[in-house]
Write a structure and sequence with these properties.
The complex is a heterodimer of chains A (about 350) and B (about 300). Chain A has about 350 residues and is mainly alpha-helical. Helices cover about 70% and strands about 0% of the residues of chain A. Chain A contains 14 helices and two strands, in the order ααααααβααααβαααα. Chain B is globular, with a radius of gyration of 20 Å. In chain B, strands 1-2 form a two-stranded antiparallel sheet. The chains are: A mainly alpha (about 350), B mainly alpha (about 300).
Chain lengths: ~350, ~300
């Protein structure tokens, strides 16, 4: 994170430093701090939530918060390519699904170890991201949206035809992953803090990436790919690396999701799920790292609250999304920033 | 026997392709002319089916029901345009995705509230019931032939409208450069409204036509929406001709693939593996096709020149 302070100095001798610095200006200090404060407040809320829940509410609240944190991780990963790279992936749920099925299939073959499963998850999602990204990134704009959708649908239909692993019906896991042969993750509190640790870790990693030279090149490519090319960067390579990183992080969220639900299903990969991930990012405020977390939380909490009020909660939720699209430029974060 | 199966499935694929074309035609124009991602186009197809159901039940006659469903779908589309979509043209794609996704949620739930969540059925009109013999031992349902005929007629009408009328000329011009058309003094907002309403009516027509052969249920448009996107991307966004060709290709590949993928694979693999792989590959075929088309022609088969 140190390198945010000195944009040009950290760039090793490749392009002329002046041009490198002008492509993407670092955010001024105070604003950065204020944003960090919001993130810290969110993490503090997450850290204290189990204690609060023990006072009053039921256990389902905790599982709702876990779910929100898992989807926050997925939304964060999407935001790296969508918010910072302007690459609208409409097939991001595929990576979540790859994580889920890596856990599910290894479980079915009696390989419950967390580290093995995590390694396979990350490798599989990285490989899938590399191959599909290399093809998808040849296209631009709307065609990119549609080709990522196509790859997402391929994974979806592949999982529905995996008859040995449940096919359409999905696959129930015998247990959560084991850590060094112990079943400590069966303890919900331990699992809760594992998910929180992953969320904080992913946030810190992405903050470092976004602030690094790599992140500035990525943002520069978003603003003006032709100019970036002219000053000696190859946008394709940077976008591909970002795509692979985003895919791996989404794979991680899938790994956690499978462990939370102890169930995996093709329904996690349908195009509607990819759409929901985009909505979480846009709802919270894309191009910020707090936005996706806020977006995932608001999306899931709102869904839960409205579903308690009425069975036909989508009649309220749908128009709400329309209102956000029409009147809240920059999502919830943007709305509040303007209100100040 | 096997030839008959191939012929039947080819006609089924053709019929599916025609339906896809009716949905995709509106989508590609809305997309091409207004640069507007309308995820809610699929629910307009669903609304058309529900209108057909409602009016057929009300009048007791499918023909009348269809005749009433068309203007109803048009009015509904124009209403949606006036209330929501009109305000989204200037927003970026992501906000359009957000809003139209919200409309999908709302309308899918809305029809559930009004008509219930169980599938509804519309009887095939009497004079189109039964099958006719096309060849020796080869029967085909009359109604499906009627869909193919009606679809081809609409395609021809659309061809004339787009290529030989003033409105069609403006639409083509709009797909190439909407700003320039506006600068030349054309009321672009009105053009958008017409294109949108017309697209909604075509999707509604598709929904109404399939109501007697498919069950009418909430969410029936969701998967067809994605297929329609596949069609317009393969065809080239904004190109009606491309959408027509791509719709037929997708309809045929999907239908024939699902029936024969296992059989074709049996030439290379042992029967057990062939049927397993066939079942896995068949639904993926069209997406593989789309990825391949975009790989070699990143702007589709018939890119609109800009």
């Amino acid at each position: 994170m140190l390198d945010t302070a000195s944009p040009a100095a950290t760039a090793p001798a490749t392009p002329p430093p002046a041009a490198g610095g002008s492509a993407a200006s670092a955010a001024p200090r105070p604003r950065l701090w204020r944003r960090e404060a919001l993130a810290l407040a969110l993490f503090a809320f997450f850290a204290l939530a189990p204690a609060l829940a023990q006072v009053g509410a039921e256990g389902y609240l905790l599982s709702l918060v876990i779910r929100a944190m898992i989807f926050a991780i997925a939304a964060l990963s999407l935001d790296l390519i969508l918010g910072y790279g302007a690459l609208v992936s409409f097939g991001h749920a595929a990576f979540v699904g790859i994580g889920c099925y890596a856990v599910g299939i290894l479980m079915a073959h009696a390989v419950p170890d967390l580290f093995v499963q995590l390694l396979v998850t990350l490798l599989a999602s990285a490989l899938f991201a590399f191959v599909t990204g290399a093809i998808s990134l040849r296209t631009k704009g709307v065609y990119f949206i549609m080709i990522t959708l196509a790859f997402g649908q391929m994974v979806y239909f592949l999982t529905t035809s995996l008859a040995p692993y449940g096919g359409d019906d999905g696959l129930t896991l015998p247990s959560r992953s084991t850590v060094l042969g112990t079943d400590v993750l069966e303890n919900d509190t331990v699992f809760y803090y594992l998910v929180l640790a992953c969320l904080v870790g992913v946030y810190a990693l992405l903050r470092a990436i976004v602030g690094s030279r790599f992140g500035r090149v990525l943002r520069g490519t978003k603003e003006n790919p032709v100019r970036m090319q002219a000053i000696g960067y190859d946008p394709y390579r940077y976008q591909l690396v970002a795509y692979v990183i985003a895919g791996m992080i989404a794979g991680l969220s899938g790994f956690l999701l499978a462990n939370q639900l102890e169930f995996v299903s093709p329904a996690f990969i349908s195009w509607q799920r990819s759409g929901e991930l985009i909505i979480m990012v846009v709802l919270g405020g894309m191009g910020t790292l707090v936005g996706p977390i806020v977006g995932a939380m608001s999306f899931l909490f709102l869904e839960e609250i409205l579903a308690r009020i009425t069975q036909d909660w989508k009649l309220i939720f749908g128009p709400l999304l329309v209102l956000v699209a029409l009147f809240a430029r920059g999502g919830i974060l943007g709305f509040f920033r303007r209100a100040k | 026997m096997y030839t008959t199966l191939i012929l039947v499935q080819t006609l089924n694929g053709l019929q599916f392709g025609i339906i896809l074309f009716l949905i995709a035609a509106g989508l590609t124009l809305v997309f091409g002319v207004m640069d507007f991602i309308n995820l809610a186009h699929g629910v307009q197809y669903m609304i058309g089916a529900y209108f057909a159901f409602a009016f057929t039940t009300w009048t007791g006659n499918f023909g009348l029901g269809l005749l009433l469903a068309l203007p109803a779908a048009l009015v509904f589309g124009l209403l949606l345009e006036a209330v929501v979509f009109r305000h989204l043209y200037d927003k970026d794609h992501l906000e359009q995705v957000l809003a139209t996704f919200g409309i999908i949620l709302f309308l899918n739930q809305g029809v559930k509230v009004i008509w219930g969540s169980s599938p509804l059925f519309v009887p095939v009109p009497e004079f189109l019931q039964g099958s006719i013999q096309l060849m020796d031992g080869f029967f085909y349902p009359v109604y499906r032939l009627a869909i193919i005929g009606a679809g081809l007629a609409v395609a021809a009408l659309l061809y004339v409208l787009v290529n030989y009328t003033r409105a069609g000329m403006l639409v083509r011009a709009g797909a190439t450069n909407a700003k320039m058309v506006a600068a030349l003094g054309v009321d672009i907002r009105r053009l958008f409204m017409i294109v949108f309403g017309f697209g909604a009516m075509l999707a509604g027509f598709a929904g109404a036509m399939v109501a007697p052969i498919l069950s009418v249920e909430p969410g029936m448009g969701d998967n067809l929406l994605i297929l329609a996107f596949v069609v317009i991307v393969i065809g080239g966004i904004g190109s009606v001709r491309g959408a027509f060709l791509a719709a037929l290709i997708i309809g045929l590949v999907d239908t024939l693939g699902r029936t024969f993928a296992g059989d074709v694979l049996r030439l290379f693999l042992d029967p057990g593996a062939a049927s397993t792989v066939g079942r896995a590959v068949a639904p993926m075929l069209i997406y593989i096709l789309m990825a391949a088309v975009l790989f070699f022609r990143p702007a589709g088969l018939f890119p609109v020149k800009r």
